[in-house]
């Protein structure tokens, strides 16, 4: 039987109260949103906070997807199921919808949140790769005020981020680029499992030329979840199957996967090559106004 | 701490530790053992209950997080006019063998049918994709949910149980 160690339960009714409780209880307290990362870690004693601060009452204030000018704003308490159902997301960031369709399972998606997934910072977290590909920024609030952090400097290592123990991630923002689109590809052993490898791509296209390219990789030890050498191959070029295959191969070489129970290193590199190529091809077709799939 | 929640339309309250999981609160504290407790790891889905109208895996929710909220368990499926069509479907189409996954499957099936009264086989399989039937009786589970979709008012009097 797996149950968490004894823990004190607190509930925050506002972002200010959540921060005040974090300050009061110090570094041995943790925020709990959907709980679908933290509670399994607590059951295994991989996490052992003395206090959990329930922020589900903030769902009313921090669960939203809205367009603000040329940006999509996504509240940190937005559940995976709501992100998947969002028409704004499907229209402006299809990579998010495609990833959400293969994150966990439908029942888990009713509970898990965007902010929780990002703050858990699992090296195989799909949304980390997705927001890396999208070049997102995250908003973080704490006793010293609010700050915005580029997704490229958000992660500080496996399971660690720049969010301080007394801070709360409140929002993710994604820029809507004209002439851009995106796609996500993932291979998993079974429904609900972490990726063996996954690749997302965002391409901005002008005419036939790629003006901007970002690639996000999950579960393969990529620095900041990115593939910069593969991205550099793409910029300024005209999209073609050969180009996308070359970029995929580069991504497969530059990532840093480890052999584990999900597969050997060479297999993961092969997956990254193929998945990156496919994501690039579909993102390009979409950005060029071609086939939506 | 004292935890109060509305379970199947009835207010209930009991003392529990902060670390108590909702599945254990329902089963051990409130005595509602219809909800099953399986893998402990958010994988198997036998513990699915509704929290505020949506299916969740109750092994991965603290009871305290459901304090002040509405929970619906398999005991709340049966209405005044008898079994829910989902329950009737599982009975008629042999949707259960050992029965261990059944409460979770039925809670997800009821939610699916409330959202989508006429789901395809693919949509049913997608909906229950986070739940495991270790008898591997998925074919009949899908048939059971389809039966419920085709009989939204439940069984016709003229149909026998073995129809």
Describe this structure in words.
- The complex is a heterodimer of chains A (293) and B (163).
- Chain A is of the alpha+beta class and 293 residues long.
- Chain A is built from twelve helices and 13 strands.
- Chain A has a five-stranded antiparallel β-sheet with strand order 4-5-10-6-7, with helices on both faces. In chain A, strands 1-3-2 form a three-stranded parallel β-sheet, covered by helices on one side.
- In chain A, β2, α2 (38-43) and β3 (51-54) form a beta-alpha-beta unit.
- The radius of gyration of chain A is 19 Å and the shape is globular.
- Chain B is an alpha+beta fold.
- Chain B is 31% helix and 14% strand.
- Chain B is built from five helices and five strands; from the N terminus they run ββαβββαααα.
- Chain B has helices at residues 22-29, 85-92, 102-115, 121-127, 138-150; strands spanning 2-7, 10-15, 48-51, 54-57, 70-72.
- In chain B, strands 2-1-5-3-4 form a five-stranded mixed β-sheet, covered by helices on one side.
- The longest helix of chain B is centred in the middle third of the chain and has 14 residues, at 102-115.
- The model of chain B has no long low-confidence stretch (mean pLDDT 95).
- Classes of the chains: A alpha+beta (293), B alpha+beta (163).
How is the secondary structure organized here?
The complex is a heterodimer of chains A (293) and B (163).
Chain A (H helix, E strand, L loop, with lengths): L7 E4 L3 H11 L3 E4 L5 H6 L7 E4 L4 H4 L2 E4 L2 E5 L4 H6 L1 H6 L1 H7 L5 H4 L4 H7 L5 H9 L2 E6 L2 E6 L4 E3 L2 E2 L6 E8 L4 E9 L6 E12 L2 E10 L9 H7 L6 H14 L10 H23 L6
Parallel strand pairs in A: 1-3, 2-3
Antiparallel strand pairs in A: 4-5, 5-10, 6-7, 6-10, 8-9, 11-12, 12-13
Helix pairs in contact in A: 6-9, 10-11, 11-12
Chain B lengths: L1 E6 L2 E6 L6 H8 L18 E4 L2 E4 L12 E3 L12 H8 L9 H14 L5 H7 L10 H13 L13
Parallel strand pairs in B: 1-5
Antiparallel strand pairs in B: 1-2, 3-4, 3-5
Helix pairs in contact in B: 2-5, 3-5
């Amino acid at each position: 039987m797996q149950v968490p160690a004894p823990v004190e339960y607190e509930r925050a009714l506002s972002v200010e109260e959540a921060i005040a409780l974090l300050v009061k209880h110090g570094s041995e307290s943790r925020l709990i949103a959907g709980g679908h990362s933290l509670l399994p870690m607590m059951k295994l004693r991989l996490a052992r906070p003395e206090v959990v601060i329930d922020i589900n009452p903030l769902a009313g204030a921090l669960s939203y997807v809205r367009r603000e000018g040329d940006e999509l704003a996504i509240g940190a308490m937005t559940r995976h199921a709501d992100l998947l159902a969002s028409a704004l997301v499907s229209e402006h960031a299809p990579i998010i919808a495609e990833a959400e369709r293969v994150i966990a399972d439908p029942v888990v998606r009713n509970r898990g949140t965007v902010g929780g997934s990002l703050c858990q910072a699992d090296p195989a977290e799909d949304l980390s790769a997705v927001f890396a590909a999208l070049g997102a920024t995250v908003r973080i609030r704490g006793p010293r005020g609010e700050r915005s952090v580029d997704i490229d400097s958000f992660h500080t290592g496996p399971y660690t981020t720049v969010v301080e123990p007394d801070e709360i991630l409140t929002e993710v923002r994604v820029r809507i680029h004209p002439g851009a689109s995106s796609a996500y590809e993932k291979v998993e052993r079974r429904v609900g499992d972490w990726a063996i490898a996954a690749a997302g791509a965002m391409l901005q296209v002008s005419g036939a030329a790629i003006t901007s390219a970002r690639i996000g990789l999950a579960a393969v030890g990529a620095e900041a979840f990115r593939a910069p050498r593969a991205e550099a191959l793409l910029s300024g070029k005209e999209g073609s199957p050969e180009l996308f295959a070359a970029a995929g191969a580069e991504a497969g070489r530059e990532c840093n996967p480890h052999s584990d129970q999900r597969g050997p290193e060479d297999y993961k590199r092969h997956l990254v090559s193929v998945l990156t190529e496919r994501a690039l091809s579909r993102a390009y077709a979409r950005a060029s106004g071609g086939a939506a799939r | 701490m004292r935890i109060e929640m509305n379970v199947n339309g009835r207010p209930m309250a009991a003392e529990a530790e902060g670390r108590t999981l909702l599945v254990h609160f329902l089963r051990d504290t409130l005595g509602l053992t219809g909800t099953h407790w399986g893998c402990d790891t958010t994988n198997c889905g036998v513990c699915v209950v509704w929290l505020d109208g949506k299916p969740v895996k109750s092994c991965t929710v603290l009871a305290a997080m459901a304090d002040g909220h509405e929970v619906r368990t398999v005991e709340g499926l049966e209405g005044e006019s008898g079994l829910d069509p989902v329950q009737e479907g599982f009975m008629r189409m042999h949707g259960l063998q050992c029965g261990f996954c059944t409460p979770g499957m039925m809670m997800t099936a009821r939610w699916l049918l409330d959202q989508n009264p006429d789901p395809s086989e693919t949509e049913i399989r997608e909906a229950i994709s986070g739940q495991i039937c270790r008898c591997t009786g998925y074919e009949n589970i899908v048939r059971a949910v389809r039966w419920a979709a085709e009989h939204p008012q439940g069984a016709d009097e003229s149909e026998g149980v073995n129809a």
